[in-house]
Design goal:
The protein is 13% helix and 39% strand. The protein is mainly beta and 260 residues long.
Length: 260
């Protein structure tokens, strides 16, 4: 692999610094599995100077949303003030998601989560994957058949069922059919997680990008997990009709660059 000597650790540091508040673990309520990870995403609608207007969603692997009753672990560090409840039960869970055709990706407007927090007297304090970090076609084009180190920010399943956050180190590579694959095994609970790369720039600089999200393994003969990449997600969002809509909200533009 062609990497800066310390690029891996620098990328992990950037992921933790800028995206540790972006993920939520969820699972089927009252039954074991399926376990998965979702993340907050701000879809850029318009930009005026340093102000961006976004629609906010939770994003995950579509296959993991096929359940009627889901249990979301409320991470206290993402709430202000910290709530007393540790879990959030979501009924009619499958109906709340819009599937992006052919991508294996589902998204849910976050208005319901914000309304729940308002009723309980607290607010979400999250990081989000934004336009500045979500990969573009030219970023994905840099992934070849030669595996490149990648990092999934996910919530695996502990021995007692705990859903702690972890940075899972693996690799991305382009398969012979052109799809991008996570080329190592993933712990249980990591499907749906965002995947990050540190892409070299000139000199000793690099940029942090979110390549996409990990999907369940398929049976196409290539093995391991396909990755739904953000270049395709961006395109699909331009024509998607999202259930219940998602109000556009102005946000101050964030910078997602990190130098080694």
């Amino acid at each position: 692999m062609s990497q800066l000597p310390d690029l891996g650790q620098a990328t992990i540091d950037a992921v933790i610094a800028h995206a540790s508040g972006a993920t939520l673990p969820f699972q089927r309520a009252n039954h074991p599995g399926p376990y998965a990870t979702a993340f907050w995403f701000n879809d850029l609608v318009a930009k005026d100077g340093d102000e961006e207007t976004v629609r906010q969603y939770l994003v995950t692997a579509a296959e993991q949303t096929r359940m009627d009753l889901a249990e979301v672990t409320i991470r206290p560090e993402l709430c202000d003030p910290a709530p007393s409840a540790e879990k959030l039960l979501l009924t009619s869970f499958a109906e709340g998601w819009t599937h992006l055709d052919g991508l294996g990706v589902a998204l849910m407007p976050t208005g319901g989560l914000h309304a729940y927090a308002d009723r309980k007297g607290w607010r979400w304090r999250t990081d989000e994957i934004t336009d500045g970090i979500a990969a573009r076609a030219e970023d994905i084009a840099r992934i070849t058949a030669e595996p490149v180190t990648a990092f999934a920010l996910a919530h695996d399943v502990g021995a007692e069922g705990e859903r702690d956050q972890a940075v899972v180190v693996g690799a991305l590579a382009r398969a012979t059919d052109g799809t991008i694959r996570w080329s190592t095994e993933l712990p249980q609970g990591c499907v749906g997680a965002p995947v990050f790369l540190g892409l070299r720039l000139e000199g000793d600089s690099f940029k942090l990008v979110c390549a996409g999200l990990v999907l369940p393994p398929d049976d196409h003969g290539f093995g391991h997990h396909p990755v739904a990449t953000f270049d395709h997600i961006r395109t699909a969002l331009t024509t998607a009709t999202v259930a219940d809509g998602a109000p556009a909200t102005p946000r101050e533009r964030r910078r997602w660059w990190r130098r080694s």
